[in-house]
Design brief:
The complex is a heterodimer. The radius of gyration of chain A is 18 Å and the shape is globular. Chain A has one domain. By secondary structure, chain A is an all-alpha fold. By secondary structure, chain B is mainly α. Chain B has one domain. Chain B contains 8 helices and no strands. In chain B, helix 2 runs antiparallel to helix 3 and helix 2 packs across helix 6. Chain B is globular. The chains are: A mainly alpha, B mainly alpha. At the A-B interface, helix 6, helix 7 and helix 8 of A face helix 5 and helix 6 of B.
């Protein structure tokens, strides 16, 4: 099983290297979005605005980065995967790949945010950790959304419509959690509780994806 | 006639709810005053909505297990009526908040409605809105049924924390915040309501839920007649 997951993952990564334009497309998307924000603020944004802007941008990056993971697979290729791997293996490999991609993209956008919009964060290391956690959470939900949307016709718009309400609770928790890095004082234990809740939701999403994907997979 | 006892029950209970709800003596609390009677309508909408969503969720699971088209019709119509009740619940709540939460004239309703508890409700409505958009984007019936069942199950499970867990963790104007010793996300009927109000409240919940189920069954019957040719059991 691990061997097959690894093989599928390897194939996705290899494909990314062969078709570099999609990868750089997303990087350029991040860069231009951050640049637009940079230009639209006469002064540098204050901490709260910075924080909410950052997370909203994460959401849109994820829609763009993860959307193609299922859309790029043609019908014939899906049939081929169907014959060589189990649905659980397939979805887990996709999840791992998307998590890696999204963590990378989140880090790039964090660097760009620091560069263009200054750094209002007090504890940069802690914030980076929260960003990675956030990137993982968002990409998990959108992986399954992309799998669902790939079955429908106008898929790109559907991913946003379906995913945003579902990710909202987690996103709000992440925004709240990241205030810790802005030196906001939390009740003792609240930070741990919030992080554990987000991690718990992530585990739930993965479990749901593994259970539900087999039904999406067969045509 | 034998099968329709619960419809009669629903009718009687709702008559009782409206008559008793408006006439019976209620405790006169500060700020809320007589608007407390809205409880018989606003809270019941959420109860009924949640029950209908659970039914829809169960039918979606049944569909994935059996692949019988009939289960998909059930899941869709229960979700539709549930979402409608949710909209009613949201609007009755907004009216209520307009008269109780707004303290001075400068406050807008929009600023007050940013509440963790209302958020869960709004998310629920958005999710089911997306569910219907998703359904609309398919032409193939089997595919539509299967994919939307998957989304329904996933969305319902993800909805759970935003309605049942998060509101317990944060403060809010809405009844049932942590600190007030109720321990329930919205309302704890045992502790918060006095005996007279409970006498109307419980029948009202049952009555509204039955009405919701009744509307849903009518819609299902229409759908079943329309798709008669598709269903060959």
């Amino acid at each position: 099983m691990f061997k097959r997951i690894y093989a599928l993952l390897h194939k996705d990564v290899l494909l990314e290297f062969r078709q570099k334009h999609t990868f750089y497309g997303i990087v350029l998307y991040i860069a231009s979005t951050v640049f637009v924000i940079y230009l639209s603020f006469p002064d540098k944004p204050d901490g709260a605005t910075w924080n909410s802007l950052f997370w909203i941008i994460q959401l849109f990056i994820c829609v763009n980065a993860v959307a193609k993971s299922f859309l790029q697979e043609s019908k014939g290729r899906m049939l081929y995967f169907y014959s060589i791997a189990s649905p659980a293996e397939f979805i887990i490999s996709k999840i791992i790949y998307n998590v890696l991609l999204m963590v990378l993209m989140s880090s790039i956008s964090l660097i760009l945010f620091f560069f263009f919009l200054t750094n209002p964060v007090n504890n940069a290391l802690q914030f980076t950790g929260i960003v990675i956690l956030g990137g993982i959470s968002i990409s998990l939900v959108f992986t399954l959304m992309s799998a669902i949307a790939a079955k429908a016709q106008q898929n790109a718009a559907l991913i946003a419509i379906m995913g945003f309400p579902i990710i909202l609770p987690q996103l709000l928790m992440l925004m709240k959690l990241s205030k810790v890095a802005f030196a906001e004082v939390f009740r003792a234990g609240a930070v741990m509780q919030l992080s554990l809740l987000i991690v718990g939701l992530d585990v739930l999403v993965v479990a749901m994806a593994v259970v539900l994907f087999p039904y999406l997979w067969k045509d | 006639m034998k099968k329709s006892w619960w419809k009669i029950l629903s009718f009687v209970l709702l008559i009782y709810t409206v008559v008793a709800g408006f006439l019976i003596k209620v405790p006169d609390l500060p700020i809320i005053h007589q608007s407390i009677r809205n409880l018989y309508f606003h809270v019941c909408m959420w109860f009924a909505m949640m029950i209908l969503f659970i039914i829809s969720f169960v039918y979606s699971i049944l569909y994935l297990n059996t692949s019988r088209y009939i289960n998909d019709i059930y899941a869709r119509q229960f979700a539709a009526v549930g979402a409608f009740l949710g909209i009613l619940g949201y609007s009755t709540g907004a009216i209520w908040a307009n008269y109780t939460w707004l303290t001075d004239q400068n406050q807008s309703l929009g600023s007050v409605l940013k509440e963790p508890k209302l958020l869960g409700a709004a998310i629920a409505l958005l999710i089911y809105g997306a569910y219907f958009v998703l359904r609309g984007s398919f032409t193939d019936i089997d595919k539509r049924a299967r994919v939307s069942a998957v989304y329904n199950i996933f969305a319902f499970v993800m909805l759970f924390p935003s309605i049942w867990i998060i509101p317990r963790m944060v403060g809010s104007l809405h009844p049932g915040a942590p600190g007030s010793d109720t321990g329930n996300p919205a309302l704890n009927a045992q502790k918060d309501l006095d005996a007279v109000m409970r006498m109307v409240f419980y029948p009202a919940v049952i009555g509204w839920t039955l009405l919701g189920v009744w509307i849903a069954t009518l819609k299902i019957r229409i759908q079943l007649l329309q798709d008669k040719t598709l269903i060959n059991e």
